Every structure is written in structure tokens, then in C-alpha cells.
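Inverse folding, one chain.
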């Protein structure tokens, strides 16, 4: 390799290292999640009708309960692993973060928030609505229906994990969020998270009342109440963008002073 080529390659590597905008990890994460969601929806379409109508049948155990008992521990491990990693590798000198590095971390946080919003859509919108369609078509004989196993115990934990990752990233790496808790950010994470405990109330109610044709019943109001907390994304975005604008102005002033 010639000296000129080596210098050019070194310049490219230095530029890649110095960049503060890199959304490719977020893009690839959402692409992989999209493929995964489509795959499990196809799985549900095929095995839901073939092995998911009778919870007492052996094939229900094979294709659905085994899936649920596999996904729940893996989700718990992912939740603890991501939170533990972000905490262990936290910035222990958060006050000394350089403006350029803070800008890079803020833009990385936007990638985290995009992933969180993406997973909230699939869990709280797509799979929730198709669950309503399922239960208006098939009368359940168990709380652990194929639709619920993918909705409540797969898609909901996935968005909880994504939100937890975004919240912990901000708390451990960005001065603005590390020094004090952001109320909009807390609501943005905690609201959709509380939908998961609300599942217990929902299943308890369905055990005593047939409500397949009554989705506006008070029993379901908890889903709507906590779901609307997602609107706190606007407050979170304003806090992030305000700091981005502030840092940009500092860059501009430093450039003019040179």
C-alpha cells in the first residue's frame, strides 16, 4: 500500500471516529425488529389457527406455551443486562463532558428514542389492535391466547426494554439528564411501562366477564390512560432539542471568534 493510500485510509478512519452523527445502529436495529415482527406475525397466522384454538391440546403447549416460557426469561435477562451494562459503563465524571461529546451523546439518544417509539408502535398499536380482532373472532378459553403471548408477553416487554435503555443511556451519559430526573422523560417511559402491570387487571376482569364485544368497557381504560403518557415524547424532544440548539450556538460563537 502506498504512503498516499495509507494517509487517505487514516483520514477516513479519523473522520469516522470524529463524527457526531451516526444513526446507522438505530436504523439497523429497527430493520432487524421489523423483520422479527413480520416473522412472528406470520408464525401467529399459521400456528394460531392450526394449534392455538384449544389451550388443552398438546400442540398448544408445543407451539405457544413453550414460546411464552422461552421469551419471558430472555426479556428479563435483556432488561437487566442493558440496564446493568449502561450503569456499569456510566460516565463517572459527567461534569467534564466536552460540548462536542455531549452533542454526540444527545444525537445518539435521539436514535434510542426512535427505536423506543418504533417498538411502542408495534406493541401498543399494531399487536394491540390485532389482538382485538382476534378476540372478536375467537372466544378465548385461556388468558394465554396466541395473540396475548405475542402482544402482552413479547411486544410489550420489547418496548419496555427499549425505553429502559433510552432512559438509562440519558441518565448515565448526558449531564442534562444525569443531574436531575426529567419529568417528561420519566412519564414517557413509565406510562407505557405501566401498561404491563395493567395486564393483570385486564386478565382478572376477563376471567369473570365476557367482554370480547365491549372494548370501550372501563376495564380497558387503563390501557388508554397509560398509553396517552406517550405524548410526553414531545416534552422529552423539546428538552433534547433545546440543548442541541444551545450547543450549536456555542459552536457558532467559537467558530466566529477564531
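Residues assigned per position:
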Amino acid at each position: 500500500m502506498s504512503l498516499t493510500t495509507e494517509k487517505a485510509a487514516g483520514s477516513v478512519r479519523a473522520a469516522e471516529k470524529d463524527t457526531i452523527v451516526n444513526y446507522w445502529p438505530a436504523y439497523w436495529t429497527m430493520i432487524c425488529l421489523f423483520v422479527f415482527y413480520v416473522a412472528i406475525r406470520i408464525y401467529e397466522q399459521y400456528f394460531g389457527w392450526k394449534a392455538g384454538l384449544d389451550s388443552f391440546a398438546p400442540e398448544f403447549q408445543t407451539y405457544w406455551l413453550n414460546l411464552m416460557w422461552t421469551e419471558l426469561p430472555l426479556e428479563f435477562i435483556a432488561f437487566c443486562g442493558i440496564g446493568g451494562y449502561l450503569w456499569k459503563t456510566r460516565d463517572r465524571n459527567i461534569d467534564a463532558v466536552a460540548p462536542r461529546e455531549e452533542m454526540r451523546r444527545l444525537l445518539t439518544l435521539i436514535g434510542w428514542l426512535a427505536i423506543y417509539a418504533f417498538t411502542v408502535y408495534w406493541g401498543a398499536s399494531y399487536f394491540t389492535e390485532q389482538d382485538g380482532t382476534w378476540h372478536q373472532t375467537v372466544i378465548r378459553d385461556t388468558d394465554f391466547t396466541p395473540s396475548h403471548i405475542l402482544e402482552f408477553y413479547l411486544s410489550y416487554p420489547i418496548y419496555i426494554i427499549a425505553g429502559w435503555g433510552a432512559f438509562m443511556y440519558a441518565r448515565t451519559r448526558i449531564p442534562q439528564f444525569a443531574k436531575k430526573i426529567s419529568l417528561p422523560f420519566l412519564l414517557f417511559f413509565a406510562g407505557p411501562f405501566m401498561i404491563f402491570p395493567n395486564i393483570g387487571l385486564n386478565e382478572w376482569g376477563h376471567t369473570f366477564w365476557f367482554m370480547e364485544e365491549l372494548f370501550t368497557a372501563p376495564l380497558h381504560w387503563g390501557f388508554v390512560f397509560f398509553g396517552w403518557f406517550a405524548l410526553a415524547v414531545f416534552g422529552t424532544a423539546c428538552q433534547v432539542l433545546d440543548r442541541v440548539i444551545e450547543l450549536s450556538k456555542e459552536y457558532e460563537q467559537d467558530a466566529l471568534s477564531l
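The chain is about 80% helix and 0% strand. The chain has a mean pLDDT of 87.
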